[in-house]
Amino acid sequence: MAGPVTVCALLWPQGQVFRNTPRVKLNDSKKLSKRQREDWSHYLKAHSAVHMELASVSNKVIDKINIAQATNLAATRALGKIIANKNLKKSDIFIYLDGGLKLKKFNNFKIQTVIGGDAKIKVIMAASIVAKVYRDRFMTNLDAKYPLYGFRENKGYGTEKHTKTIKLNGPSIHHRLTFLRKITIL
User: Fold this and answer.
1) C-alpha triplet 73, 82, 43: angle, nearest 5°
2) DSSP string, 60-110
3) Of the candidates 116, 81, 79, 84, the residue with the CA atom closest to the CA atom of residue 95
4) N or C, which terminus of the chain has less Cβ within 10 Å?
């Protein structure tokens, strides 16, 4: 209900063996605790063989183009940054996309969309973890400016307490108004 959508493009070298990984198995970010996600995010960022780029699309843009298109836009931007920064050619990479993601460019690359990929494909799991940790930190920092909404706890999701706060006080400038209209808060 609030905040940007964030996507991570993560370059994971084929056949790379990772040592000294966090004690918990790499998994869908939603199935890991906050601490486990943070451990994996730190590990991945520190690993010299892993390269990543993040891209976010604001709540204002989400309201203009919808969440699906905003997520696709973020994915396109993140992948564009990683390809440009690493000077990768299409023959150098194979792209895995999670679920309903569609890229606005890169049609001539080898791409496989995997439904539920964040629970099946390691590189998707890793990218999902990094993106979630980044966005959660963004929402926690936003809580300092807007403590009324409890972003530190709810991360912008539609908890009962968050919904009641919006009904009583109206939305902040970081709320997704189209989401609020759909659930008849506005």
Assistant:
1) 105
2) HHHHHH-HHHHHHHHHHHHHHHHHHHHT--GGG-EEEEETT---SS-TTSE
3) 79
4) C
User: From CA 144, how far away is CA 74, in angstroms rounded?
Assistant: 25
Could you state, in order of their start, the residue ranges of all structural domains in the chain?
5-141
Residue 177: other Cβ atoms inside 10 A? 15
Confidence (pLDDT) at 182: 83
pLDDT in tens, 10-23: 998 888 888 888 98
Q: Is 111 helix (H, G, I), strand (E, B) or coil?
A: strand
Fold of 5-141: Nucleotidyltransferase; domain 5 (3.30.420)
